[in-house]
Write a structure and sequence with these properties.
The chain is an alpha/beta fold. It is 43% helix and 18% strand.
């Protein structure tokens, strides 16, 4: 990826280790990366920054903070692809997805990945969503 074509990825997660690791890997992969430690910080950042893609954790300050942030991002710019990452299925047994059009309308995310996220899987989803 050349410098002119760098895409900006917003990563929002209250897990500092996850933020650090994903930022390092995506930066090494040629992406411009901005991070936020939660929903409120991300909403402030979005006032001055329009990412090409957002990677959002589901459970942050509030149990449904990721859903609310996805809704906020899509309301600002519906063309920004969103990947929602969560450990909710393994922690609670609740299962949901973003595979169908109906699920994406409800979840407001374009893809859903379960934590722990394999980096190869994440980059494959990022590339797929940015190609649209």
């Amino acid at each position: 990826m050349n410098a002119e074509a760098k895409k900006t990825v917003l990563i929002v997660d209250d897990d500092e280790d996850f933020l650090f690791q994903q930022k390092a890997l995506l930066t090494a992969g040629g992406y411009e990366v901005v991070t936020a430690g939660g929903q409120g910080e991300a909403e402030q950042l979005l006032k001055t920054c329009r990412p090409d893609l957002a990677l959002v954790d589901l459970m942050m300050e509030h149990a449904d903070g990721g859903f609310a942030l996805c809704y906020h991002i899509k309301k600002l710019d519906a063309s920004i692809p969103i990947i929602l990452v969560t450990a909710v299925a393994s922690e609670t047994g609740l299962e949901f997805d973003a595979a169908t059009e109906e699920e994406r309308r409800w979840v407001k995310a374009d893809a859903l990945l379960a934590k722990p996220v394999r980096f190869e899987q994440l980059t494959r989803e990022i590339e797929r969503l940015l190609e649209r």
